[in-house]
Amino acid sequence: MKAIATFAFVLFALGSFAADIPKAPVPPSPYLPIIYKYADALVDRGRDTNGVFHSALNRVTMVPLALRTSGVTPNDHQNLLRLLYTLTELSTKPKYREAADAEVRRFIKNEYAPHLSSRPWMLWERCFAVAPEQGQRLALPPLHSITDIRRDSGFIIRAGAADYQRTPHESWPVGIDRLLDTLEDPASPTTEPTRLGGDSSNVFSDLSLAMDCDAASRLVPEPHASKWRKFAEKKDGVFCSLPHDLKTTGGFITGDLGVGAQRQTSLWTPLLGRYRGHTTAQVAMMCVSRYENTGNVAYRNLVHAAADAYFKSMPMPEDDVGPMTFGHAISLQVAAWRSTAQQKYLDRARELADFAVKHFFDEGPLPRASLKSTHYDVGTGADTLALGLVELHLHILGITAVRYPPNTIDR
Fold first, then answer.
1. Residue 158 phi/psi, 5° resolution?
2. What range defines the domain where residue 260 resides?
3. pLDDT attached to residue 348
């Protein structure tokens, strides 16, 4: 009886002690209310009578602007769509998913071609879920119709792999094997070898192609899967071997300018990264994708170096920076925090996010198109910034039950 009483006392004492331990405070995050206002404005007031998202709007009146009246596709809003699916999980409100599904249906029903040059399409699984009646194979464009043979081939390979997983057809992966052989042939008229002094876009086009080949390899059988992974690994080796001196220059090497000078990415410009080249953060997010999918430590080191380059840098007054660049910079810091557990990276992500909220969301629920513009324009990456903010929010609060889309498709 004495032993039982002693044991009971110990349990009581431990229980009392545990009850006295204060709960760890939940760190505040101001970002989610801003994201909900952004999403609500576009879902409730930012679509036409057919449910299509407008591409450019007055941020106060929400009146459409005639800035980008043609050529806008669901792919231009893809990070917004990915964000809306995430908000559906966070809020359980179906309106976000329904709005996103409407755009996805436009895409899969061939109102627009599966290949769109601004971004790879990442929502194939959702496409097939919302449009199961889409029985025919995807109408992939011919290679001679594309402008960047490396990068755009990667987009087509990714799309074809998704389609192959749904309706296998052996002739398709065999054709991709031949395409990769052609891209590896230095004598091919369709390509130039990736090297300093060559076409500078090849450096990043090859990195983009590696991302898509690796992703597609997970959807096809052997021996194709191994061949595509080896192709991607070879491109990884070339990219990581370039002299990217991020600590000194803050940029990735993109090519030679002659007389010993090298072309590099910049931290905050160009304004429209998706259309006019690359910023350091944009390329670094491609490195994040390769590291997290392959475990290649060379990419991890580049990610950390790029994150450090942004640690004490902000745009100059003359820099007309778009929201996309801040979205990439925020996600880059979060990625560095994930792989190092160093609080400084999460703190820097918050500093960048606070600056972006103050300067982009300064009037109305939508972010301005750039630091020197007053309207909203989908082409400058508002959805990329929004995705970066929601990613940061989930990390600050330690929310793991809701998956966030990787902010790596702007390439």
1. -65, -45
2. 32-72+243-411
3. 98
Tokens of 43: 């879902």
Give the ranges where 310-381 is alpha helix by DSSP (H). 323-340, 343-360
The Cα–Cα gap between 204 and 207 comes to 5
Whether 163 maps to a domain, the answer reads: no
Q: How many CA atoms lie within 13 A of 139 on its CB side?
A: 8
Q: Is 296 exposed, middle or buried (0-12, 13-18, 19+ CB in 10 A)?
A: middle
**pLDDT above 70 as % of the chain:** 79
Structure tokens at 9: 């006392």
The model's confidence at residue 199, banded by pLDDT at 50, 70 and 90, is: very low
Position 182 in a domain: no
How many independent structural domains does the chain possess? 1
On whether residue 354 sits in a domain, the answer given is: yes
Exposed/middle/buried for 148, CB within 10 Å: 0-12, 13-18, 19+?
middle
**Domain-embedded: residue 11:** no
Q: In this predicted structure, what is the pLDDT of residue 116?
A: 55
pLDDT of residue 71: 61
pTM, entire model: 0.88
